[in-house]
């Protein structure tokens, strides 16, 4: 299962920018990869693990932040079409990584 996190965080003040940076760094610490500046994804071995990640992310959301978490099965993820410039490219398949508990 794939977990996608999309967010819109306030960055008007210096304190808000620090919180937004901390949130992005926390996502990286949880094993997410940046797809776009406010879109991160990660492969999860099970639905339960994906839901656990979502709860952790929910606890990290800065005040006035908006975070949406999407879940995709491997099959749904493989159907994603991505375009870069004028050519089509397929997103990476399930990574060859082990997840230790």
- Strand sequence of the main sheet, in spatial order? 2-3-1-4
Note the beta-strand portion.
25-35%
Helix content: 25-40%
* Averaged pLDDT: 88
Radius of gyration: 15 Å
The domain count comes to 1
CATH architecture: 2-Layer Sandwich
Instruction: Provide the low-confidence segments as ranges.
Output: none
Morphology: globular
Distance between the termini: 16 Å
Strand/helix succession: EHEEHEHEE
Number of continuous helical runs: 3
Secondary structure: number of strands: 6
Q: In words, what does this structure look like?
A:
- There is one protein chain.
- The model has no long low-confidence stretch (mean pLDDT 88).
- With 101 residues, the chain is an alpha+beta fold.
- The chain has helices at residues 14-29, 47-60, 74-78, and strands at residues 2-8, 33-36, 39-43, 66-72, 81-84, 87-90.
- It has a four-stranded antiparallel β-sheet. Strands 5-6 form a two-stranded antiparallel sheet.
- The relative contact order is 0.24.
- The chain has one domain (2-84): Alpha-Beta Plaits (2-Layer Sandwich).
- It has three helices and six strands, in the order βαββαβαββ.
């Amino acid at each position: 299962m794939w977990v996608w996190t999309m967010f819109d965080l306030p960055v008007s003040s210096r304190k808000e920018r620090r919180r937004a940076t901390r949130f992005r760094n926390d996502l990286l610490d949880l094993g997410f990869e940046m797809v776009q500046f406010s879109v991160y994804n990660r492969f999860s071995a099970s639905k339960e693990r994906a839901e656990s990640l979502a709860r952790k992310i929910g606890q990290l959301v800065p005040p006035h932040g908006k975070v949406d978490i999407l879940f995709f099965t491997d099959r749904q993820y493989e159907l994603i079409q991505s375009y870069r410039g004028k050519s089509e490219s397929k997103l990476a398949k399930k990574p060859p990584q082990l997840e230790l508990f």
